[in-house]
Specification:
This protein is mainly alpha-helical. Helix content is 70%, strand content 0%. It contains three helices and no strands. The chain has helices at 2-51, 81-106, 112-135. Helix 2 (81-106) packs antiparallel against helix 3.
């Protein structure tokens, strides 16, 4: 009886070691791929640095934007409303990203009522954000 129990535990221990080795092997593949990717980028940047010509001139050191030579100071006022437009776009882009998977899950059996309630809560938060933006006058193009 003891001999059988010893073989059983040895076999169980072997199976656990095999599963652990298989588990870590899958992560080692991901780690190796990450190392290869980092090395590839490092070699590419290093080769670019070694092969490019370095001839600094005063014209090359000027700030350049849109083909216009810089005049005056480098500080300028920026309108905050453009950031708000970008923020509103991100909100509604995220909304559409969540609506498409919701539509596919909603059709699956057993998910109807809970999914519908969750999506109306989500849409309620978005509606509050849109109402806030409207009250602040962000959506007016003047």
């Amino acid at each position: 009886m003891d001999h059988f129990a010893g073989n059983y535990f040895a076999t169980d221990h072997f199976a656990a070691n095999y599963l652990a080795a298989d588990y870590f092997q899958s992560y080692s593949v991901v780690g190796l791929l990450a190392v290869v990717g980092v090395l590839f980028v490092a070699v590419a940047f290093g080769a670019g640095r070694l092969l490019r010509p370095i001839v600094p001139t005063p014209e090359k050191l000027l700030t350049y934007e849109c083909g216009v030579d810089p005049v005056g100071e480098g500080w300028a006022h920026t309108q905050v409303r453009y950031y708000v437009y970008a923020f509103l776009y991100v909100i509604f882009a995220v909304d559409s990203i969540f609506l498409f998977p919701w539509a596919t899950v909603f059709a699956a059996p057993g998910y109807g009522a809970a999914t519908l309630v969750e999506m109306f809560i989500f849409l309620g938060f978005l509606a509050v954000g849109l109402l806030y933006a409207y009250k602040k006058g962000v959506l007016e193009w003047t």
